[in-house]
Design brief:
The complex is a heterodimer of chains A (about 325) and B (about 325). With about 325 residues, chain A is α/β, with parallel strands linked by helices. Chain A has helices spanning about 55-60, 85-90, 110-120, 125-140, 145-150, 160-170, 190-205, 215-220, 240-245, 250-255, 300, and strands spanning about 1-15, 25-40, 40-45, 70-75, 75, 95, 175-180, 210-215, 225-230, 235-240, 310, 315. The chains are: A alpha/beta (about 325), B alpha/beta (about 325).
C-alpha cells in the first residue's frame, strides 16, 4: 500500500542577484521529482552532495514548502498545509538529523529533549508523558532509562546521542520518519548498531522510513527501494538489489562503480566519467548528466528524459536505458 | 628494505584531568615502495602516530618512550631545526584538503614554490617548472597553477595537495584521510590517482583512514588500531581472509559492502573506552566476545603468527 506520493515536486531557491540583474536566478534544488513510498518500507534517497536529497527529504516533512507539485500522505495533499493543519500533520512525521552533536539542545537534559515533541503536540498528562519518555528510551536500548533521563547530551557518546535523537522522533508514535544521513557521523563499530536498531523499529512498529545517505553500501543495507538523485532530478528508482546488480542509468553505473569494496582481492571495473557536478543554478535544457555522460547523444542535450519503466519495479530517466 | 621503523612508541597527551594515553606501545615498520595502511576508528591514535613521525604534535603531547627510526637516526631525538630538514624532503604529508591545507590568500603555485624553495637551493624559475611537471603528474592543468584555492573544486584541491606532497621528492608520504571529505566519484578518482602515483614512482606511503574499504583497495599491508594500541598488522589479503584479532573480525562484520551477498551486520557492543583511563589488560576486553580472565589483567604481547602476520590477543594462545 502506498503511504507517500510525490508528484512533479519542485523546489527552487531564488538567488539574490546583483542590483542590475533583472531576471531572478534560481537554484533548482529539487526539479520535478515523482516517486511513491510504500507503507512500512525503507525508501532510500542517495546521491552526491548537492544532488537535492536533503531538500527532497525536508519537503516530505514539510520543513520546506514546494514551489510546485503535490505531496500526498495517505491520499491527503500536504504540500501547502499551514497553521493547525500543519501541526496535526507533524504528529505523523518526524525527522532524525545527521549530526547528533548539533541536533540536540545542549541545555536540555535527555528527559526534556525527548518530552519536547509531546509538549509541543500536547499529548498526554505529565504522568503519561513520563511513561512515554521512559518507554522511548527503552525502545532505543538506552537501558536502564533512569540512568539516562537526567544526563545532558555532552555526557553521552555519539552513538548514544543518535539513539536519543531516534527516541525523540519515536515518542509521539509517528507513522513516518525521515532520517537524513543518520549514521554518517558515527564510527563503524557504533554505526551498525544504530542501523540495526532502525531496522528493528520498522519491524516492531510498522514504521515507514525515508533514509537519506551518500553512502551506497549503507543504503544497500538499509533500504527496500533506492532513488538515485543527480542535480535535483531522480535519475533511477528500483528495488535495492535490482538497482545494485542491474543499474540502467549511466550515472548510477558510475556511482556504483566508484564505491570502494572492503576486499583487497576485488578488482573493480571503474567507469570513468569526466568533470565534476555542476551548479544547479538555472540548468540548461536536456539531461542534467549529459555533459559528463560517455554515451550522450544529441537528443540528451535538447530534451530532458523522463522516468520510465525499464524493468520490473525499476524506473530510469535515460533515453538509452 | 625498511625505510621507517616505529619501535614501542608510547605517546600521551597531558590534560587537566590527567594523561590521555593516545598511543601505547605501538611498533611497526614500513618497507620501501609499499603502501602501508593505518586503520581505526576516531580517537584510536592513528593521526597521532602520523603527527609523531612528522614531529607535528601539539605542545601538550609527550612522547614517553619508543623510537622512530628513519635514515639511521631516531626522529624523536631531532631538534626542531633538524626536523625541518626531514619534513617535505624526507617525509611529507597529504592532508585532507578540505581541512584548510591550502592558504586561501595565496596562489597555489606560490605555495608549492615556497615549499620547494625552503628545502632546495634552486631558482624560482626552476621551482615553477617543477610545479608544472607536478601538475601534469597529478592530472591537473598546469595553466591553472596560478589560481587561488577557492577557484578549485574539492577534487582539484586534493590533487594540488598531493602535488605539494610530491614536490621535494620525499622518501615517505603520509596521507591522512586524503579522500574523506570528497564525494564518491571524486574520492574514487583520487584513490586511483594516489595508487597510480605510488606504483609509478615506487613511493613509500603510510595511508591513514577510518574507512576499511578505502584502505583495502589502497594498501599492501594494513595495521589495525584500537584505542591507542595496535591490534593486528598483516598483509592486506591475509588480514581480510584471516583476521585474527577479535576487534579486526568485529570491524569487518560491522562494515556494509556494495558487493557480494547481503549479510546482517553485527555491531560491536559497548563504546570505545576513554583513554584518560583505559581498561587494564587488553584495551578491547570490555567489548570482546572472547574475553577471558587473563585479558582483564595482562596486556597481550604483539606476536608474530607466521608470514609477517602480527596480532595482540590472548585468545590466540
Amino acid at each position: 500500500m502506498e503511504l507517500i506520493r510525490a508528484e512533479n515536486v519542485r523546489k527552487w531557491f531564488p538567488l539574490r542577484g546583483g542590483f542590475l540583474e533583472r531576471r531572478p536566478r534560481y537554484v533548482h534544488a529539487v526539479d520535478d521529482i515523482t516517486f511513491a513510498i510504500q507503507n512500512q518500507e525503507i525508501f532510500g534517497l542517495a546521491g552526491e552532495s548537492g544532488c537535492g536529497k536533503t531538500t527532497a527529504s525536508k519537503l516530505l516533512v514539510r520543513l520546506v514548502e514546494p514551489t510546485s507539485g503535490e505531496i500526498y500522505l495517505d491520499g491527503t495533499d500536504i504540500s501547502h498545509l499551514e497553521g493547525r493543519e500543519l501541526r496535526e500533520f507533524r504528529k505523523n512525521v518526524q525527522m532524525v538529523f545527521q549530526d547528533p552533536y548539533e541536533s540536540l539542545n545542549p541545555r536540555f537534559n535527555i528527559y526534556d529533549t525527548i518530552a519536547e515533541p509531546l509538549i509541543v503536540q500536547r499529548i498526554g498528562s505529565p504522568e503519561e508523558q513520563e511513561e512515554m519518555v521512559y518507554k522511548a528510551l527503552e525502545t532505543v536500548e538506552l537501558r536502564p532509562a533512569e540512568d539516562f533521563v537526567f544526563r545532558f547530551p555532552h555526557e553521552l557518546s555519539g552513538g548514544q546521542r543518535q539513539r536519543v535523537a531516534v527516541a525523540r522522533a519515536l515518542v509521539i508514535e509517528p507513522t513516518f520518519i525521515v532520517a537524513d544521513e543518520p549514521v554518517s557521523m558515527l564510527d563503524v563499530s557504533i554505526r551498525a548498531g544504530v542501523m540495526n536498531l532502525m531496522l528493528e523499529l520498522r519491524e516492531k512498529f510498522g514504521l515507514t522510513f525515508v533514509f537519506v545517505t551518500h553512502d551506497l553500501a549503507v543504503s544497500r543495507y538499509m533500504c527496500d527501494h533506492i532513488a538515485i538523485m543527480y542535480l535535483g532530478k531522480v535519475v533511477e528508482i528500483a528495488a535495492t538489489e535490482e538497482l545494485v546488480r542491474n543499474p540502467h542509468h549511466p550515472y548510477t553505473k558510475a556511482l556504483l562503480s566508484a564505491v570502494p569494496v572492503p576486499d583487497p582481492t576485488e578488482k573493480r571495473k571503474r567507469i570513468d566519467i569526466i568533470g565534476g557536478v555542476s551548479a544547479a543554478v538555472d540548468p540548461p535544457p536536456g539531461c542534467r548528466f549529459a555533459s559528463r555522460c560517455p554515451y550522450a547523444i544529441a537528443k540528451c542535450k535538447r530534451e530532458d528524459p523522463v522516468l520510465k519503466d525499464v524493468d520490473k519495479d525499476h524506473l530510469a530517466a535515460c533515453y538509452l536505458a | 628494505m625498511k625505510v621507517l621503523e616505529v619501535q614501542n612508541l608510547v605517546m600521551y597527551y597531558r590534560t587537566m584531568k590527567g594523561y590521555v594515553k593516545a598511543v601505547d606501545n605501538v611498533s611497526f615498520d614500513v618497507e620501501k615502495g609499499e603502501a602501508m595502511g593505518l586503520v581505526g576508528e576516531s580517537g584510536c591514535g592513528k593521526t597521532t602516530i602520523g603527527m609523531s613521525i612528522l614531529g607535528l604534535l601539539p605542545q601538550n603531547a609527550a612522547v614517553q618512550s619508543g623510537k622512530i627510526l628513519f635514515r639511521n637516526g631516531d626522529l624523536l631525538e631531532l631538534s626542531e631545526k633538524e626536523m625541518q630538514h626531514v619534513r617535505w624532503k624526507g617525509i611529507s604529508m597529504i592532508f585532507q584538503a578540505a581541512m584548510n591545507a591550502l592558504n586561501p590568500v595565496h596562489r597555489i603555485e606560490d605555495q608549492i614554490v615556497e615549499a620547494i624553495k625552503t628545502h632546495e637551493n634552486i631558482s624560482k624559475e626552476e621551482a615553477r617548472k617543477r610545479v608544472a611537471q607536478l601538475y601534469t603528474l597529478v592530472g591537473l592543468d598546469p595553466e591553472r597553477a596560478r589560481d587561488y584555492p577557492h577557484e578549485y573544486s574539492g577534487g582539484m584541491k586534493q590533487r594540488a595537495v598531493i602535488a605539494m606532497a610530491l614536490a621535494c621528492n620525499p622518501d615517505i608520504i603520509i596521507a591522512d584521510e586524503p579522500t574523506t571529505a570528497l564525494d564518491v566519484i571524486v574520492q574514487d578518482q583520487i584513490i586511483s590517482e594516489i595508487k597510480k602515483l605510488q606504483q609509478e614512482l615506487q613511493m613509500t606511503m603510510i595511508y591513514i583512514s577510518h574507512d576499511i574499504s578505502v584502505i583495502a583497495e589502497s594498501c599492501e599491508r594494513i595495521a589495525v588500531m584500537y584505542a591507542g594500541i595496535l591490534a593486528e598488522y598483516a598483509n592486506a589479503v591475509d588480514l581480510f581472509k584471516n583476521p585474527m584479532h577479535p576487534y579486526t573480525q568485529a570491524l569487518m562484520s560491522s562494515f556494509p559492502s556494495i558487493k557480494g551477498p547481503k549479510k546482517r551486520l553485527i555491531p560491536v557492543p559497548g563504546e570505545p573506552p576513554n583513554l584518560l583511563n583505559p581498561p587494564r589488560g587488553c584495551r578491547f576486553h570490555p567489548r570482546c566476545p572472547l574475553a577471558m580472565d587473563v585479558c582483564k589483567k595482562v596486556v597481550p604481547e604483539f606476536t608474530e603468527y607466521g608470514n609477517r602476520h602480527w596480532a595482540a590477543c590472548h585468545a590466540l594462545g
